[in-house]
Amino acid sequence: MNLQHDPNPFDEDEVNPFSNRTAAPASKSRIPALVSETLGFGQRHDATVDIPLDTTNDSKKKEQELANWEADLKRREKEIKRREDSVAKAGVPVDDRNWPPFFPIIHHDIANEIPVHAQRLQYLAFASWLGIVLCLVFNVIAVIVCWIRGGGVKIFFLATIYALLGVPLSYVLWYRPLYRAMRTDSALKFGWFFLFYLLHIGFCIFAAIAPPIVFHGKSLTGILAAIDVFSDHVLVGIFYLVGFAFFCLEALLSLWVLQKIYTYFRGQK
């Protein structure tokens, strides 16, 4: 028996199926295979890494939206500044009267002049101003009914004075300062608004009670006046109770608006 000695009995041709059989013996080295196994390149159980390609696109889209929003805000600020400068130089108002549409007496354009993030608050404040207008107008109607039923002409004149003074003064003293404060972010105008809006809330609470002091008792449709006239004339009492409900709702709405605007003001600072 002729046994031939093999210096490397574990070196077989089939160890690397991708090796070339005609290659030189040196090509049978297992170093490349070991390296590939160590590094894990091309192996069956290699971990895969998912690269979210949409993340970059989403971030760029958000950055573009933020840039557009900032550009629009700067454009509005420049427009407001230009209008205010023209007022200061020319000495004449540039705000055209556009509200109410059927008989314009004031300038009011929340959608185009108030920043988007503050428009909801401005609409709430506008609803509060419309609320006090409704309260004072209905107060005149209820007092007219009471006057017809023998309440006297004095309370009619007083109720008319409340309406004629209350509607424009509420607009000039607290609604218009708030409108301008929202446009220019002026702390002074915000302070002016808070001062007179507190007085407005105090008047609503006083009118809802209608004590017979300062104002003539039956010239305001409060709860005390309603109780007083209800025993004599039920219809008048119903009108006064409705007026009392209006003043109560206006007081509650005004308190809510005050809290919202104060929170907004503190957040801006």
UniProtKB/TrEMBL annotation:
Subcellular location: Cell membrane; Cytoplasmic vesicle, Secretory vesicle membrane
GO BP term (any one): protein transport
Record-given protein name: Secretory carrier-associated membrane protein
GO cellular component, one term: trans-Golgi network membrane
Signal peptide: none
Region ranges (Disordered): 1-29
Sections of the chain in a coiled coil: 59-86
Keywords: Cell membrane, Coiled coil, Cytoplasmic vesicle, Membrane, Transmembrane, Transmembrane helix, Transport
Described purpose of this protein according to its UniProt entry: Probably involved in membrane trafficking.
Family in the record: Belongs to the SCAMP family.
Bilayer topology: Multi-pass membrane protein
Domain of life: Eukaryota
Transmembrane spans: 123-150, 156-175, 187-214, 234-258
